[in-house]
Design a protein that fits this description.
445 residues, alpha+beta, five-stranded mixed sheet, 5 strands, rod-shaped
């Protein structure tokens, strides 16, 4: 019997060999193509330096403006040094051509101000051209001028991009040195100093990038922490307000409900109208307590879950009007147009506006008659609630004015329109229009 041992290659779910190494290589090549090829022609002007540092803020305003352009001045000085070094390296017998060749590495240095990736390729392309036109003693593959220019370009481009781009630039520079160094003529090589100096510069720039990113991340974390602390403080304040409001209002409303339930038993043979009045008072007090607990639940916590009971809509308007009639307000309702289902927010806001308006009529115009008009019109819902002047012996109750403000806030939230004011006969009128987009318009949007 012969035993055969096979080495299994890791496979993916579809049966093909595992290609993690291929994927890493593809990602690396994709990064090279993005950083140094696609971005070579991208116009990215170097912005002025920030002047919000702790030291720069102490300088005079005019000097701060000059400090803002320090990076541009440093690049200009490096370009001038490159020009001098390259001009003395180039063979002067070439005439105007020597000047033109001397300007190639200078252009590469200056190009870092507007097109960083393109400046790297120009500097790399200018290096062999200037080396071929230079004196034999100038050195290969970099002369003094092209070495300074290429080192400057690598440093500036790395500072303006990211560490990955710096690694790619150094690798391509090392590859060029490996290919070009054997072509030298025996006067020595400049590959070692250029590669070592550029590696040290790129390492420093990469560490600066990492430090800047870490500082930015810490700043963002501090901002998030401060925001969360502010939200927690706000939530604690809202909880305190909710607790105080519950202790004040809920106590009195509970007393009203209990007294309304016990009041008929304190009178011997009370008339049916009186018993019904106390029943209505108790139902209103209990309903107010339910609404109060629901609102305070929202105020107490942001993750409050709304109860299963549905919010009131215009379908509940008849029950509201019947309740108001039991309190003595003579109110009639008129519906204009074809009744249709509206968005929940519009239904709830319309109900609350009518509720608040009738409550204002009860407080400010006791004994008056009121009329509620609901108009289902094209493009929205119209509401009009008008009441006459106060009648009878009951004095109007003073109000805080928050009811009208709350109604305006609801209307504004729905991009509607509202008018409120006194009528000619001494009453009061509130007119509201709430826009409702057509179904076809919502689908197109």
């Amino acid at each position: 019997m012969t035993e055969t041992t096979q080495t299994m290659t890791p496979r993916r779910d579809d049966g093909r060999p595992h290609d993690s190494e291929m994927r890493v290589a593809a990602d690396a090549l994709r990064g090279l193509r993005q950083d140094l090829i696609h971005d070579a022609s991208v116009y990215r002007p170097l912005p002025p330096r920030g002047t919000d540092g702790p030291f720069v803020r102490r300088l005079p305003a005019g000097l701060r403006r000059c400090v803002a352009w320090t990076p541009h001045a440093v690049v200009a000085v490096a370009a001038f040094i490159t020009l001098l070094s390259t001009y003395f390296d180039v063979d002067g017998s070439a005439g105007p051509l020597s000047v033109l060749l001397a300007l190639l590495p200078v252009a590469a240095v200056l190009l870092t101000l507007v097109r960083p990736a393109g400046a790297f390729w120009l500097s790399l392309a200018a290096t062999p051209v200037v080396a071929l036109a230079s004196e034999p003693w100038a050195g290969l593959p970099w002369t003094a001028g092209t070495g300074i220019a290429h080192w400057t370009v690598l440093t500036v481009v790395a500072a303006r991009t990211r560490p990955r781009t710096a690694a790619w630039m150094w690798a391509i520079t090392a590859l060029y040195a490996f290919v070009a160094e054997p072509l030298g003529d025996g006067y020595g090589t400049s590959s070692g100093p250029v590669l070592v100096l550029s590696a040290m510069s790129l390492m420093v720039v990469s560490l600066w990038h990492v430090r800047t990113a870490a500082r930015r991340e810490v700043t963002a974390e501090r901002t998030v922490t401060a925001h969360e602390r502010s939200r927690r403080t706000l939530l604690e304040e809202r909880t305190t307000i909710a607790r105080e409001l519950h202790d004040v209002v809920a106590h009195h409303m509970s007393v009203v409900a209990i007294q309304a339930e016990a009041a008929p038993y304190r009178v011997e043979n009370p008339p049916p109208e009186l018993e019904q009045a106390f029943v209505t008072i108790r139902e209103n007090a209990v309903a107010a307590l339910t609404e109060l607990r629901r609102v305070l639940g929202v105020v107490r916590a942001e993750d409050y879950e709304a109860p299963d009971a549905p919010q009131p809509t215009l379908a509940d308007l008849d029950r509201l009007l019947e309740n108001v009639r039991d309190t003595g307000l003579d109110v009639e309702k008129a519906v204009i147009g074809a009744v249709r289902e509206l968005p929940q927010g519009v239904e709830l806001s319309a109900y609350r506006i009518v509720q608040e308006t009738l409550s204002n009529s009860l407080r400010h115009a006791p004994g008056a008659a009121a009329r509620v008009e609901v108009a289902y019109v094209l493009g929205g819902l119209g509401l009009r609630v008008v009441n006459g002047p106060a009648r009878g012996l009951v004095k109007p109750s003073p109000g805080s004015g928050h009811g009208i403000t709350g109604m305006r806030e609801r209307v504004t939230m729905l991009n509607g329109e509202m008018t409120a004011g006194a009528t000619d006969d001494g009453g009061y009128e509130v007119a509201v229009f709430l826009p409702v987009p057509a179904a076809g318009a919502e689908e197109r949007a």
